[in-house]
Amino acid sequence: MARGGSVTTGPTLAVVAREAGVSVPTASKVVNGREDVAPETRRRVTEALDRLGYVRRPRFDAAKAPGLVDLVVHSLDSSWSGAVLHGVEEAAYDTGLEVVVSAGLTRTRAGHPDRDWLDKLTARGSAGVLFNLAELTPAQYAWLDQHRVPFVMIDPVHEPPPGVVSVGAANWQGGVTATEHLLSLGHERIAVIGGYRRKMCSSARVSGYRSALATAGIPHRPEYIRYGSFSEDGAHRRMLELLSLPEPPTAVFVCSDKMALGVYQALTERELSVPDDISVVGFDDLPEARWTRPSLTTVRQPLSEMASTALHLLVRMMAGDRPESTRTELSTRLVHRSSTAPPDQNAPTAPHRP
Questions:
Q1: pTM for this model (two decimals)
Q2: Do residues 230 and 195 touch, judged by C-beta distance below 8 A?
Q3: For residue 212, which of 85, 179, 225, 278 is within the disulfide window of CB 3.0 to 4.6 Å?
């Protein structure tokens, strides 16, 4: 995280160039993210930079220049990302900032952090970074700390290190709310399809599901807990497995709207209807939740508000302020549509097969 104090004097660019066996102008090109450098030369310079602990310094005075921040997203091919971009865009307009958007640039190669986006970050003088659904390595966290770059995580994949500022949704409470809704309709055979087992938001939603069942005095059934890796295909396979159980569920809580589409597909293949045969609750409240037939009852997480909150926190950090809490959680709420209903008392208990 960004820290105050003076910068420790490190090796000069001339020392780095000598270590790498290149000229100072060539080393400068690598530091500034120029493309006209041979791959082998870039590798030697990059290794020398790391080995010597060279600190790349921003080329502008953030206090005098227009504010520029980076938004690094996992991908740009989903309405989930679109909602995050919308929130950042509105907040940036309000604060007079400019935003550079990059996708998938925090991935690593051969166990080393991708240096291209790190080098370009300082070369263009970004004053801070927002990471959305990012999986940063210890080396990348260390790089950001060393270069005193303030950053905020939006819905981090894993629990961030102590001191890292993050913004997310009340995922545990969302899991409770979804399950309590199905319980209120009279369902007891309730299954859950989580995303990635070790992803922070997924484990919290599944934990909320288990807690709601326990509060209602209904023991959770291990065979009713599945994980679909946040993909339609994964949820489709897990739903077919649930339908093949000796006593299949009458309702399922699916931990993302995208996965709910795969559940719908599996139920259609088995000639089962929603909600007459099985009730379905999703999570996110993406536009797809309204477009499905029947429309999807889901837990809304405020994606745009999360992104906007993260940017406002980043602005405070860029000004040298420190948030009172490193974790901000925004509330979730149930959006009741047409995919849930009381269980059909005449529903078969034998496995549903093709």
A1: 0.77
A2: yes
A3: 179
